[in-house]
Amino acid sequence: MHVPGRRRRDLLVLSSLGAVLFATSTGTAAAKPPQGDPLQQQVDAVHDTGAVGVSAEVTSPDTRDIARAGTAERGTRRQMPLNGRFRIGSATKTFTATVVLQLVGEGRMSLEDTVEQWLPGVVRGNGNDGSQITVRQLLQHTSGIRDIGPEIPALKSADGYRAERFRTYTPEELVGLAMQLPPKFFPDDEQWSYSNTNYILAAMIIQKVTGWSWAQEVNDRIIRPLGLRDTSTPGTFPFILGPHAQGYAFGTGTGTGTDVTVLNSSMAVGSGSVISTAHDLNRFYAALLGGRLLATAQLDEMTTTVNAPELGVRYGLGLAEIPLSCGGSYFGHRGELLGYITWGGATRDGTRTAVVYVSSDGGQDTEQAMITLVDQELCRTRS
Asked: DSSP E strands: which ranges in the chain?
């Protein structure tokens, strides 16, 4: 899920895109660990761009490196928590796509099924036609359906957040809002446009196929089997339980910003509502790319990518393919949901993973530093 309004958010923004974001303030810096560790240097570089708090973890078969900088709460000296929890935003989409592909592998549905087959009459009106949109096109963002994110007041401004932070949305209500808008284009595998609505619909299809909610399926198929003890699907519950940093949004770059830690994230079901940690995300990426969640045929479908010109990368099914400066590419996803921004992913075989998150809206320099951290750590060779 993204924070719309004056800026395009929740995109896998690469440096070549020149993403225009707004910086937020720093808190009082906590004491920094000794210098010399490359990951700590990268995390410090992210913090120096204006993020309130930064935390990162990098894993390989024999190593687990952790670094943090900044503060967990603006104006205090409270350190960023070790293995702190945060809203992972659109990194949720990879979880949703994984469940859909598991169901495909079980023969319970097909990527070529239409939305109309599973959700009769739901995608209709103003030029929208679910009979012409496939499940593949939802997961790939080639459906043309408009993004519902810009219609959510809580994601647009501090006033909207304060007024609606406890509001509950149903998936049907969200899709209904999107159907009031004409499609951006007719379904076409040659055209691409990022839309959270696609993944809200995917969550609805999961429930229709299985008889269980999206949250239940994500828990039963991914979270519990992998033992992701710090990962949850909060539903309408607005609080982050356990150790976490405060999240800040709607900053002006002059030391202000709204604490947006409390949020009913029902507007992001399937698209951005999961709460996790850097450690759990690394374990998820390693399991996914390592072939432990999907059969080879379905993992191949997920990692078969098309051009995503909005992002300057290639995009598969809930997973982006991002070039590495050392050659080749990695698979991952950017995520953001009010105040928390994350970048993460894994090498193609899942043997090396990296996740970094910040607890405030990042400016262009913050985003670039996060991108650089993931790139450098996935390129780094460990003995």
From this structure: 53-60, 63-70, 86-87, 124-125, 128-129, 248-249, 258-259, 275-276, 306-308, 313-315, 320-323, 329-337, 340-346, 353-358
Question: Is 90 a residue of the active site?
Answer: yes
Q: Is the distance from CB of 356 to CB of 367 less than 8 angstroms?
A: no
For the chain, the helix, strand and coil percentages under 3-state DSSP, each to the nearest 5: 35, 20, 50
Instruction: Give residue 314's identity as a one-letter amino acid code.
Output: R
How many CB atoms are located within 10 Å of the residue 153 CB?
A: 16
State mean pLDDT over 319-334. Answer: 96
- Rounded to two decimals, the pTM is 0.91
The predicted-structure confidence for 69-126, as pLDDT tens digits, reads as follows 999 999 999 999 999 999 999 999 999 999 999 999 999 999 999 999 999 999 999 9
**Which residues share a beta bridge with 315?**
306, 320
C-alpha span between 358 and 179 (Å, rounded): 34
Place of tokens 């070549």: 16
Among the listed residues 90, 265, 271, 329, the single catalytic one is: 90
